[in-house]
Write a structure and sequence with these properties.
By secondary structure, the chain is mainly alpha-helical. It folds into 3 domains: 2-116, Fumarase/aspartase (N-terminal domain) (Fumarase C, Chain B, domain 1, Orthogonal Bundle); 122-224 and 231-363 and 465-486, Fumarase C, Chain A, domain 2 (Up-down Bundle); 378-440. 66% of the residues lie in helices and 4% in strands. A hairpin with a 2-residue loop joins strand 1 (161-166) and strand 2 (169-175). Helix 5 packs across helix 21 (457-505). The structure holds arginine (ARG). Arginine (ARG) is lined by residues 33, 93, 120-121, 124, 328, 330, 332-333.
């Protein structure tokens, strides 16, 4: 029975020396990581090229070995592109697939030398570091375009008044521009978190080997530079055991999703009939199969709904790590699928939300109507009594609270200035109606909130300028980082060409 399940046709495992039987098909199916690894092949090949170049420079392999290795690594990349080299689950993972390709094509005497002074344990980390590095830059670019969509809204709406909320109840007047810039301020923190994650990912694990370093005279500084990493990640045992760079990235992505989900929540209720503060473009909404009148904010709902999967990825990683002893553990293989999923979800959401925002119509008349409807300027009146009538804030709060209670009882608002004036007189507060009108005007309230970071157009405009500068700095940083990666990649190609050209000459 058991022998039937054994893969007889598959070639020998590269680690099969000490084994007397091949793994069963079940074992292979259970342990391979081919689906997740497909994304890594480009980086696996790059890492191998750099490793091989270093081995030859250090005299660990011969020039001839290097030529054969580089020739066939290049062919592996081409064949993978064209579809003639596909990753085989029988070979377990991307690393074994590439190495097997090399051995099958270049022969064991050449291909068999690539894995000198290296382990899959540092190799898989190199791949993951290289992959995450580029993905973070993509996410950062997308966040910047979302921020720009918000800034464009802000620039035309520094004076558009709307109710600001606390407890989802009308609180104080703010401007739509103030609301929009709040998101920019929030997403700029995500940018900083991603930059910090980039820094962790931008260190070189290659050369940690299985866990203890190696007796071969490797040059970790050289591979660090040729892979465009900022510095070698030194302590070999820690390197092999570390997945906190993934955890940090997943936390940054989780926070991005938290923020996108909160935005989605606002889009969802702002576009309800009851709020009526925004209207989605038809092209970015969905209808109902039965109710002909429906227009739903499905993109926002799906963003909110996918957030849990990104949090799940973070929990998955943290739970994976909590019981692991130092060194490599196969549990680590499970770090990649959730990370890929998290990047995919964040990229999908960031890919569409800037367009949703750009095409949304904000209903400023409705916002103005709402801000006058429910005592949003009560705090302004209380502040006025403190400043001009020399009451303590607690006393003025009491008087204005009483006034609001009376008006609510009569189902009226501050818009009834006559009555407001009369009621205040009952508390010995005499404010001329024309003055009252100014105090209770939400637009003036906006203009007067000039404290640092307040909702006044002056402050919002200042913050718009400051955020634009910060976004410029981030764009600069992202393109410098991208250029460093591209440069390292080009430099590797150049090194490869030098080696391969020489062969033609000799
Ligand atoms: N597929 C493995 C992973 O993702 C690669 C490293 C395997 N190392 C090992 N010692 N089995 O973690």
């Amino acid at each position: 029975m058991k022998t039937d399940q054994r893969i007889k046709t598959a070639g020998k495992k590269l680690w099969s020396g000490r084994f007397s039987t091949d793994p069963t098909s079940q074992t292979i199916a259970f342990t391979h990581s081919i689906e997740a690894d497909t994304r890594l092949i480009k980086y696996d090949i790059w890492g191998s090229q750099v490793h091989a170049i270093m081995l030859e420079r250090q005299g660990i392999i011969l020039e001839n070995d290097l030529r054969e290795i580089l020739l066939w690594l290049g062919k592996a990349a081409e064949d993978f592109q064209s579809g003639s080299f596909m990753l085989d689950p029988n070979k377990e993972d991307v690393h074994m697939n590439v190495e097997s390709y090399l051995i099958e094509n270049a022969g064991r005497e050449f291909g068999g030398k690539l894995h000198t002074a290296r382990s899959r344990n540092d190799q898989v980390l190199v791949d993951a570091h290289l992959y995450i590095r580029e993905e973070i830059l993509n996410v950062q670019r997308s966040i910047s375009s979302l921020c720009n969509a918000f800034l464009n809204i802000a620039k035309v709406h520094v004076d558009s008044v709307m109710p600001g909320y606390t407890h989802t109840q009308h609180a104080q007047p703010i401007s739509l521009g103030f609301w929009a810039t709040a998101y920019v301020s929030m997403f700029l923190r995500d940018q900083r978190r991603l930059s910090a994650s980039y820094k962790l990912a931008n260190t070189n694990p290659l050369g940690a080997c299985a866990l203890a370093g190696t007796t071969f005279p490797i040059d970790r500084q050289f591979t660090t530079e040729l892979l465009g990493f900022e510095t070698p990640q030194e302590h070999a045992l820690d390197v092999i055991s570390s997945r906190d760079f993934i955890g940090e990235t997943l936390f940054a992505l989780s926070m991005v999703m938290a923020n996108l989900s909160r935005l989605s929540e606002e889009i969802i209720y702002w576009t309800t009939y009851e709020f009526g503060m925004a209207m989605l473009d038809d092209a970015y909404s969905s209808g109902s199969s039965i109710m002909p009148q429906k227009k739903n904010a499905d993109i926002a709902e799906l963003t909110r709904g996918r957030t849990g999967r990104v949090y799940g990825a973070l929990m998955d990683l943290l739970t994976n790590l909590k019981g692991l002893p130092l060194g490599y553990n196969r549990d680590f293989q499970e770090d990649k699928p959730p990370l890929w999923e998290a990047f995919d979800i964040v990229n999908e959401c960031l890919g569409i939300l800037p367009d949703v925002l750009k095409t949304t119509e904000f209903k400023t008349e409705r916002m103005a109507e709402l801000v006058n409807a429910n005592f949003a300027t009560a705090t302004e009146l209380a502040n006025y009594l403190v400043k001009e009538h020399h009451l303590s804030f607690r006393e003025s709060h009491e008087i204005v609270g009483w006034l609001v209670g009376e008006l609510v009882h009569k189902e009226l608002t501050f818009l009834d200035l006559e009555l407001t004036h009369k009621l205040l007189l009952e508390k010995d507060v005499d404010i001329p109606i024309s003055q009252l009108q100014q105090i209770l005007d939400p637009v003036l309230a906006l203009q007067n909130n000039q404290s640092l970071g307040g909702t006044s157009p002056k402050e919002v405009n200042r913050m718009i300028d400051s955020f634009e500068k910060q976004l410029d700095d981030i764009a600069m940083n992202v393109s410098t980082n991208q250029a460093r990666i591209d440069e390292a990649y080009k430099e590797t190609k150049h090194e490869i060409e030098k080696v391969l050209d020489k062969k033609i000459v000799t």
